[in-house]
Write a structure and sequence with these properties.
The chain has 317 residues and is an alpha+beta fold. The protein contains seven helices and ten strands.
Length: 317
C-alpha cells in the first residue's frame, strides 16, 4: 500500500470524527423533533376529541333534565335535529381547534429543524410576515366570514333546525358552516349567507315563543264582556289535550292595543314552546272567532259615510 493510500485511510476516520455531529447529531435531533411533534399533535387531537365528547354528553344530560323537570322542553326541537346540531357544532369546533393545533405544532417543529440546519430564522420570519400581511389584506372578507362563523357556533346563536330572521333571509336553518349559513325559506328557496355579512339574528326557536293575537271588536261592544270571553277561550285551550302541551302558561289579555277607525283592538297573548307559536295563533284565532260569535259580539266592518245629493241640491248622508 502506498503512502498516499495510507494517509487517506487515516484521514477518513479523522474527518468522520471531526464531522460526527453533522453526520449523526443533527439528523438524530431532527428525527427526534419530528417524532416529538407527531406525538404532541396526536395528544392534542385526542384531548380536543375528549373535550368535544364531554361537551356533547353534558348537553345531552342537561336536555334530559329539562325534559323531566320542567315538562315541555323550553328549547323545543326534534330530538334528531337537536343531536345533529350538537354534533355539527362539536365536529366543526373540534376540526378548527385541531387544525389550529396542527399549524402551531408544525410551525414550531419547522423552526426548530431550520435552527438545527443552521438557517437564520430572522429573514424568513420577516418575509413570512410581509406575505401574510398581503394575504390578510386580500382575504380579509374571507377571514371575517370564518371568524364570524366560529363565534356563531361557540355562542350558539342558532343551529340546524332553528327558525331565524337574518334580514332578507327568513326561514329554517339547514346547515351552519364556518363560512356560510344555509337557510330554507317558506317558499322552499335555499339561501346561502356569508357569516361575515350577518349583522343581526332573530332566533324564534330558543327558550320560548309568544303567540300574539290582536282581536278587533266594534265600538258598541262591552270590553268587560270581551275580556271575559277571551279569558274563557284561553283557559279552554290550555286545558285541551291537543294544544295544552304547547302553552307554557295561561293566556293573558294585555288590554286595548289601539283605537282604529272601524273598531277597538284588544291584544291577547300566550307564551308557547318554540316553533309552535304560529300553530297556536291560528287555533286561537279560530276559537276566539267562534266564541265571539256565540257571545253575540260583532267583529267590526269598515265604516264609510256616503253623501247623496238630492234634486233640490240638499245633501244627505
Amino acid at each position: 500500500m502506498s503512502d498516499q493510500a495510507v494517509a487517506q485511510a487515516v484521514a477518513i476516520p479523522g474527518w468522520i470524527q471531526d464531522n460526527l455531529d453533522l453526520l449523526v447529531g443533527i439528523p438524530l435531533r431532527i428525527i427526534l423533533i419530528v417524532i416529538g411533534a407527531l406525538i404532541v399533535r396526536a395528544l392534542a387531537k385526542r384531548m380536543i376529541s375528549r373535550v368535544m365528547e364531554r361537551v356533547l354528553r353534558s348537553n345531552g344530560r342537561e336536555n334530559g333534565q329539562s325534559r323531566s323537570a320542567r315538562g315541555p322542553v323550553l328549547l323545543q326541537r326534534d330530538g334528531a335535529r337537536a343531536d345533529e346540531r350538537r354534533e355539527q357544532r362539536a365536529r366543526t369546533i373540534g376540526s378548527v381547534l385541531s387544525s389550529f393545533a396542527t399549524i402551531v405544532i408544525a410551525a414550531t417543529a419547522l423552526a426548530m429543524v431550520l435552527d438545527q440546519i443552521g438557517i437564520a430564522l430572522g429573514p424568513l420570519l420577516a418575509s413570512a410576515g410581509v406575505v401574510g400581511l398581503a394575504i390578510g389584506f386580500g382575504a380579509q372578507s374571507l377571514v371575517a366570514d370564518y371568524l364570524s362563523g366560529l363565534l356563531i357556533m361557540v355562542e350558539d346563536q342558532y343551529g340546524v333546525g332553528d327558525v331565524v330572521d337574518l334580514g332578507e333571509a327568513v326561514g329554517t336553518v339547514e346547515n351552519v358552516g364556518l363560512r356560510l349559513t344555509q337557510v330554507r325559506d317558506i317558499n322552499g328557496g335555499l339561501w346561502h349567507i356569508r357569516n361575515g355579512e350577518i349583522q343581526r339574528v332573530r332566533n324564534d326557536s330558543q327558550d320560548w315563543a309568544r303567540a300574539v293575537l290582536d282581536v278587533s271588536v266594534a265600538y258598541e261592544a262591552n270590553l268587560e264582556t270581551v275580556y271575559d270571553v277571551l279569558e274563557k277561550t284561553g283557559r279552554a285551550m290550555r286545558e285541551d289535550d291537543e294544544f295544552g302541551g304547547l302553552l307554557l302558561e295561561d293566556p293573558s289579555i294585555w288590554g286595548v292595543q289601539s283605537l282604529d277607525a272601524d273598531g277597538v283592538v284588544v291584544r291577547f297573548v300566550v307564551k308557547t314552546v318554540p316553533l309552535e307559536q304560529w300553530a297556536v295563533t291560528r287555533e286561537l284565532r279560530r276559537r276566539v272567532k267562534d266564541a265571539l260569535d256565540a257571545a253575540g259580539i260583532e267583529i267590526p266592518f269598515p265604516q264609510r259615510t256616503v253623501w247623496m245629493r238630492s234634486e233640490d241640491g240638499a245633501a244627505a248622508s
